[in-house]
Amino acid sequence: MNNLEISWIFLEIADLLEIKGDNPFKIRSYQQAARLLAELDEDISVYWANGCLTELPGIGPALASKIEELLDTGQLSYLNELRREVPAQLRQLLAVPGIGPKTVHTIYKHLGVITLKELKAAACAQQLRDLPGLGTKSELAIKHAIDLLDSDRQGLPLGEAATVAYELAEAIGQLPSVVRIAVAGEVRRREEFVQEALLLAAANLNNVSDILTTFSSAPYVRKIISMEKNKVTVLLGIGLHVQLVVVDPSAFHTSLCYFTGPLAHWENLSLWAKQRGFELTASGLFSYNCGQPLTLQSEEELYHRLGLMFIVPELRSGREDVLAAANGTLPQVITPEQIRGDLHLHTNWSDGRESIASLAKAAAQRGYEYIAITDHSQSLKIAHGLDAARLIAQAQEIRAVREQIPDLLILSGVEVDILPNGQLDLPNDVLSQLDLVIASVHSGFKQDQETMTQRIVAALRNPYVDILAHPSGRLLGRRPAYQVDLDMVINEAKLQGKILEINSSPERLDLNAKWAAKAKNLGVKLVINTDAHDARRLADIEYGVSVARRAGLEIGDVINTWPMTKLKELRKKACDA
């Protein structure tokens, strides 16, 4: 057994102990030991052979004896005992996205629920919302997750799939025989919905079998779909296919390009190479007058050897991308480092989890120059929306926080609801006092296209609205876009000088790349916001940037890559229009 396999066994033990409601310190010791083993540079068998397992931090005699048993026999009697104690059906509840062992313990302890069918019945009967640590929102999320499992749908939104893919890549990268590893395929191209996550590892091909076997034993692998000479495909309990491909290190860069895809891009690239006297295969780039593959230090060098600008994965489509790279006309797409601020943030004044000061400090730590506090307006009762009086009180707190963090400009704003009749949720005399106004739809999603379109157009014509948030209203995998003529909305935004949002929340990614590109082509400016409800979600900006890169957006197209002075000029022009 290698370090990673033992690490995963210890994680399973920690989960089983937590389901049982065992001692938290005991649970934590297994979790810490699992992390140690996954990150250990030396193979654990070396420590075992030298009799110094207990010299490792956090490895006492009890854990050392279990490691010895695993290395000696490949089995662990303690794990087998735990598996007998905890019903197998109960362990399967961990396959439900959003449910961890602590939640399973709570549900089992209070409701006696063991099977997925019983859990769904409890959620439908609204029995979960009153349990400790849960609530209505958690209950609805669990019910939705079970529905997805029942539908046997395969795939996940980018945010969820990317998290899983990079965690697995980091784990496999810890294996001593793995020289390097990368996430490829749909995740690397930042497709908004991922059917299959693809990992590419470079290793000595003599070790392929061990690598594939270890990977197949990853936690919550539901089943092995296929196993071939140098690759394995598994289905995770969360409904995502993951493929691991192992290649020789000399073929890593061309293989990365091949497995990043899409196939149409690779075919066009191969044809381009052939026209210039090369043969491009996943195994390498060959010159026709030389039988050996050319030595490549990076994927970028592959494109440069072919006389092309490097095409970032998000722009690889198989349409005009290779030709644009040849002509030097690829867009200079933005990067996360170029984002200067976030203009759509929620605090505990409405439905956020953090104070203004806490969120502002987190933004300052990211190096932002400005943010906007845009809590919900009064009609969104479930989110504790703000009326005029509370907005005034919040503005006072914002002024106080500005003094605490002088290097960060904190704008006082609101996310005002566009009511079903097209009116805004707050009067103009209130909106006119704010630094920034975002308008959005949060109700009446079933209106027909004409009504919804006119509703949004009416909001765009309000002189105090600056930004239209999440314009299509979709939630990936959960709710389709409402019926709206986005062509008309984009044209109205151009006419009124308004900004359209790319919402970075992994469940939204709204506008999507197709509509963001249309907006760019019409000269409409966009903003990439996170819609964060806590400081942790500020990191979601990367997903919005991915949408912008797929759309070919550049610095001039995205207003929160601009300095604050330029933003103020833009707003003044819109108000004067």
Quick recap:
This protein is α/β, with parallel strands linked by helices. It has 24 helices and 16 strands.
Question: How do the strands of the widest beta sheet line up side by side?
Answer: 10-11-12-13-14-15-16
Let me know the number of strands: 16
The CATH topology of the largest domain turns out to be TIM Barrel
**Under the CATH scheme, which class of the largest domain?**
Alpha Beta
Question: What does this protein structure show overall?
Answer:
The chain starts with a helix and ends with a helix. The radius of gyration is 27 Å and the shape is globular. The protein has 24 helices and 16 strands. The mean pLDDT is 91. It has a 7-stranded parallel sheet with strand order 10-11-12-13-14-15-16. The protein has a 5-stranded mixed sheet with strand order 2-4-7-6-5, with helices on both faces. It has a two-stranded antiparallel ribbon with strand order 1-3. Strand 6 and strand 7 form a beta hairpin. It folds into 4 domains: 132 residues, DNA polymerase beta, N-terminal domain-like (DNA polymerase, domain 1); 92 residues, 2-Layer Sandwich (Beta Polymerase, domain 2); 66 residues, DNA polymerase, thumb domain (Beta Polymerase, domain 3, 2-Layer Sandwich); 241 residues, Alpha-Beta Barrel (TIM Barrel), CATH 3.20.20.140. Helix 1 runs antiparallel to helix 2 and helix 1 packs parallel to helix 7. It is an alpha/beta fold. Helix content is 44%, strand content 14%.
